[in-house]
């Protein structure tokens, strides 16, 4: 097979007209005929998502690949710790085997932090012996994000053993240390961390890249750091990569790494620097078996119409055309349904919180004085909130402030109504109840309060709740919370939204029967269903968030400050300890 056009060489930063000859899935010959010929298509290496959790697309690896190739993505560096938290090593192996069924290059990592913390209930654990077993597999390319950076700084034996195993297998180690800077950042890097995708300010990323880290510029469905971090590209083109981290199906339908390429070019960045981040740097850092348009390489490349629009006409993987003109050629495959769900339906009174409630369930050692101050740009703050009805009995509580486009939160205080001795949601001041329900065993829900979801009525719930993936819900009243949670429980996983407490009120459910995280239903159909439930939450229930379900999923992510909630209670991410609900 032969494909001709303008050949883009990222290594020597040239564009020449020519032709590729492909035999047995590899580039047999690269012929260069002469200068670039405007008007002809351009051939270049395929795009790579340098850090993504496939599970967050709500799709199996096979369905994810089917959608991603349309946008010129040929490979991902994928951390399967979401399914690992539900099913353990069995879940990781499930992802590997499902990915093998399609022509796409998945590089999976060995999840380093399952469970992510001891302050939540997960469905499984992946220990040092499991890490050794995984790293011994050729499909496992790296030790996935080491979220337990306090454990690294304090040289926790299990943490250090996992890092040592990665070094012994000569495989990279991914970092995860939001806000960590200065001497602590240097100690973290010296321990073996090579990347970070959690930087949310330019100053933080600059500090880390100067210390030798690779910075992954993230633009997902909820966390959006592209605008803050893209200036680094021109300064450190050899140490920047692009990633999505978490991308819902409607976002994947619209685009992938190709969107970041176009945005970077629109900002005036050099096209070869941009493509180095999108195509070259991940291959070199993770030693991916992905071709880079050289003789002898696997024939992994894309054909685009121009270097301005970057419209992907064709995507090739191992010489096979897997997408053409916006249509995927990867088949629509069904997958095995594995799951772990063992809780019964809930009653409205299960979501009550007493006016004298104290949800502090445990004490925890503080990480260190240096670690406590690492989030100086986003310190907890108290914000006065108006009282809707001065005559009503009220009680001051701690409130999670969700931030649109960020995984971090802030700590606020607000007064909420007290009815018959129970704390109530107050939609008038946008202070709603948030609850986490243990899905692995029977236990009372943890209840707290949250602001910025903007719901005027009803509730929403999800079994995608990073990292342990218990059921997490936000609602305007206890009855609606119960309905939304019970829809998820009845489906043994999914996203739900209800319009009110009555059974006759409108409701939506997107079922996720695989680990409560994914479905093997056609990805394009799931994108439509997700768009519908997302629209319902925004237009009918009133949410003002860009991606309400993605934001909801991160409200239980304890390793990202400042205030979060697990199935065990309200959690102070700055002091790494449980905290009381009332003030």
Q: What would you say this structure looks like, in words?
A:
By secondary structure, the protein is an alpha/beta fold. It folds into two domains: 48-289, Metal-dependent hydrolases (TIM Barrel); 348-578, no CATH class. Strand 23 and strand 24 (471-475) form a beta hairpin. Helix 2 packs across helix 3, helix 4 (128-135) packs parallel to helix 6 (157-168) and helix 12 packs antiparallel against helix 13. The longest helix is centred in the C-terminal third of the chain and has 18 residues, at 523-540.
Write a concise keyword list for the protein shown above.
TIM Barrel; 583 residues; eight-stranded mixed beta sheet; ten-stranded mixed beta sheet; 2 domains; alpha/beta
Shape: globular
Name of the CATH class of the largest domain: Alpha Beta
Largest sheet: 10 strands, mixed
The CATH topology of the largest domain comes to TIM Barrel
The beta-strand count equals 29
Fraction of residues in helix: 25-40%
Distance between the termini: 70 Å
- Major beta sheet, strand line-up: 17-20-19-18-22-21-24-23-25-26
What is the second-level CATH architecture of the largest domain? Alpha-Beta Barrel
What name goes with the CATH superfamily of the largest domain?
Metal-dependent hydrolases
- Rg over CA atoms: 24 Å
Number of domains: 2
Oligomer: single chain
Strand content: 25-35%
What's the number of helices?
A: 17
Q: Give start-end ranges of low-pLDDT stretches.
A: 359-388
Instruction: Supply the helix-strand structural class.
Output: alpha/beta
């Amino acid at each position: 097979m032969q494909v001709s056009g303008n050949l883009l060489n990222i290594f020597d930063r040239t564009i020449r007209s020519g032709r590729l000859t492909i035999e047995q899935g590899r580039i047999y010959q690269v012929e260069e005929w002469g200068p670039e010929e405007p008007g002809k298509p351009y051939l270049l290496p395929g795009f790579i998502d340098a850090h993504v959790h496939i599970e967050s697309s709500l799709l199996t690896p096979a369905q994810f690949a089917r959608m991603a190739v349309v946008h010129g993505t040929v490979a991902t560096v994928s951390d399967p710790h979401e399914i690992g938290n539900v099913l353990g090593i069995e879940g990781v192996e499930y992802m590997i085997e499902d990915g093998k069924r399609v022509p796409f290059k998945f590089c999976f990592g060995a999840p380093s932090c399952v469970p992510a913390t001891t302050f939540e209930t997960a469905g499984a654990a992946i220990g040092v012996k499991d890490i050794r077993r995984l790293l011994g597999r050729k499909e496992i390319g790296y030790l996935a994000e080491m979220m337990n950076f306090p454990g690294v700084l304090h040289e926790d034996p299990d943490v250090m053993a996992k890092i040592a195993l990665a070094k012994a297998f000569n495989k990279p180690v991914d970092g995860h240390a939001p806000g960590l800077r200065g001497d602590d950042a240097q100690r973290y890097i010296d321990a073996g961390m090579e990347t970070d995708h959690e930087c949310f300010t330019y100053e933080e990323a600059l500090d880390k890249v100067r210390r030798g880290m690779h910075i992954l510029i993230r633009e997902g469905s909820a966390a959006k750091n592209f605008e803050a971090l893209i200036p680094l590209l021109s300064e450190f083109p050899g140490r920047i990569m692009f990633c999505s981290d978490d991308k819902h199906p409607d976002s994947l339908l619209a685009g992938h790494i190709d969107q970041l390429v176009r945005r970077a070019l629109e900002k005036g960045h050099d096209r070869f620097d941009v493509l180095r981040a999108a195509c070259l740097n991940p291959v070199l850092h993770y030693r991916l078996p992905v071709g880079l348009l050289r003789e002898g390489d696997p024939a992994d490349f894309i054909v685009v119409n121009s270097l301005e629009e970057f419209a992907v006409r064709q995507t090739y993987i191992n010489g096979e055309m897997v997408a053409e003109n916006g249509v995927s050629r990867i088949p629509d495959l069904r997958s095995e349904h594995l799951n772990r769900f063992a809780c019964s339906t809930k009653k409205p009174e299960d979501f009550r919180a007493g006016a004298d409630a104290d949800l502090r369930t445990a004490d925890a050692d503080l990480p260190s004085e240096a670690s406590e101050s690492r989030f100086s740009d986003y310190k907890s703050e108290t914000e006065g909130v108006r009282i809707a009805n001065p005559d009503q009995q009220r009680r001051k509580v701690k409130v999670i402030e969700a931030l649109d486009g960020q995984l971090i939160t802030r700590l606020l205080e607000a007064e909420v109504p007290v009815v018959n001795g129970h704390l109530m949601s107050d939609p008038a001041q946008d202070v709603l109840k948030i609850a986490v329900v243990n899905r692995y065993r029977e236990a009372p829900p943890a209840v707290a309060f949250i602001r910025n979801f903007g719901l005027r009525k009803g509730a929403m719930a999800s079994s995608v709740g990073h990292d342990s993936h218990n059921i997490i819900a936000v609602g305007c009243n206890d009855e609606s919370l119960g309905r939304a949670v019970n829809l998820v429980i009845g489906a043994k996983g999914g996203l739900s939204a209800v319009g009110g407490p009555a059974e006759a009120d409108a409701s939506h459910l997107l079922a996720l029967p695989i680990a409560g995280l994914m479905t093997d239903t056609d990805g394009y159909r799931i994108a439509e269903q997700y768009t519908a439930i997302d629209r319902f939450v925004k237009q009918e229930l009133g949410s003002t968030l860009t991606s309400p379900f993605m934001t909801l999923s991160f409200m239980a992510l304890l390793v990202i400050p400042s205030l979060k909630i697990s199935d065990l209670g309200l959690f102070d991410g700055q002091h790494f300890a449980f905290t009381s609900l009332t003030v």
